Amino acid sequence: MNVGQPVETQSPTDVFSKVGNIPDEELQRAKIYALLARLMASPIDEA
Question: How wide is the angle at C-alpha 45 spanned by C-alphas 41 and 47, nearest 5°?
Fold first, then answer.
């Protein structure tokens, strides 16, 4: 592994292969947190 390599040059498949050992429930939780963060970042019209 090249330590000096920037993250941007890594292909998505490389990243997915690194996180391939994460359990499904952890992946689902990460997706939910990402969705929540996106909802928080966007302005909500319905009060």
Answer: 105
